[in-house]
Amino acid sequence: MNREDLEALVPDMMARHPLCAWRISESSTTAKFVVDVHLRSDPSRRAEVAAQEGWEIFTNLILGHLDIDFAYNDKDRIDALAGRLERAAWALTGPTHFTFTYAEGTLVRSSMDIDAEESESSPHQSAYHWGRRVRELLRGHIITGTAELDWPRLDPPPAVDTAHL
User: Fold this and answer.
1) Do both 8 and 89 map to the same domain?
2) How wide is the angle at C-alpha 10 spanned by C-alphas 6 and 16, nearest 5°?
3) Residues 75 and 123 in one domain
4) In terms of domains, do 147 and 79 share one?
5) Does 164 reside within a domain?
6) Which of 74, 83, 40 is nearest to 55 (CA)?
7) Which long-range contacts (CB under 8 A, 24 or more apart) does 40-45 make?
8) Which domain holds residue 47?
9) For 59, phi and psi rounded to 5 degrees?
10) What rounded mean pLDDT belongs to the chain?
């Protein structure tokens, strides 16, 4: 499986999410495949879904919260890409609650709680940014604060009955 194979899968995977727009990012290279996903109605709600060289590490990044999946064969790669795109769409369409923990202004922990009715996996995701956390501890910095953000649920527009038109 190569970058072009992954790219060809995205339109069908994103078709289930009419509230989201997507594009293959300009930062995509032969070593990194990146899909930018955002809400059509609010482009500030963004996610970055990426596959790293070797197509074994799949990530999504939303507001600094990093979610990772691994895949080692082609079937698992397809599932991992679909899973990262699904999670991004669920988070963007909400309701989603984010909590960010900082040490001297550096993000050291984040959590994302998705209340997705369609979610087949755990809707809660926590990420510890261990490298940053250790660096801040070594510098003598302590946890200085947390920030929370809520994105409300966005419902898809009602279907239009065109049979009578």
Assistant:
1) yes
2) 150
3) no
4) no
5) no
6) 74
7) 41/154, 45/92, 45/151
8) 3-93
9) -130, 160
10) 81
Alpha helices in the chain (DSSP H): 3-14, 74-93, 130-138
Question: What's the rounded Cα separation, in Å, for the pair 3 and 10?
Answer: 11
- How confident is the model over 46-73, as pLDDT tens digits? 999 998 878 889 988 999 888 888 999 9
Q: What is the pLDDT of residue 43?
A: 92
Same domain assignment for residues 141 and 122: yes
What is the Cβ-side half-sphere exposure of residue 39, based on CA atoms within 13 angstroms? 17
**CATH assignment at residue 30:** 3.30.160
Handedness of CA 125, 129, 134, 140 (dihedral sign): negative
CA distances, 142 to each of 52, 70, 79, 104, 110 (Å)? 33, 32, 39, 7, 16
Identify the helix (H) or strand (E) that includes residue 125. strand 124-128
- Mean pLDDT over 21-33 rounds to 78
For 18, 62, 109, 112, the CA distances from 66, given in Å and listed in that order, are 24, 7, 10, 9
Query: What pLDDT is recorded for position 159?
Result: 54
Q: What is the spatial order of strands in the sheet that 96-103 belongs to?
A: 124-128, 106-114, 96-103, 143-151
